[in-house]
Amino acid sequence: MKKIIYTILILAVLAIAYFSYQKFRPKSPQELYELAPAKIANLTQTVTASGKIKSQTQVDLKFQTSGLLAWIGVKEGDRVNQ
Prior knowledge:
It is a single chain. The chain is mostly helical. The chain has two helices and no strands. The chain has helices at residues 2-24, 29-32.
């Protein structure tokens, strides 16, 4: 009788382990994404909004003297120091 109970318990543990693995295992890209062949089409998307646009990072430039800026020795994206 003990052999039957142990066998049933072992099978139950194995079944739980198998289904847990199936649920939490890493998924392949085919399972994660819906794949479709590429095709040529016209895409149209309209966004309507109102309000003010504000950047996450904003810098107010203040100069010691007034005048026109004739030349800047850096390009966009270059790192500069104060």
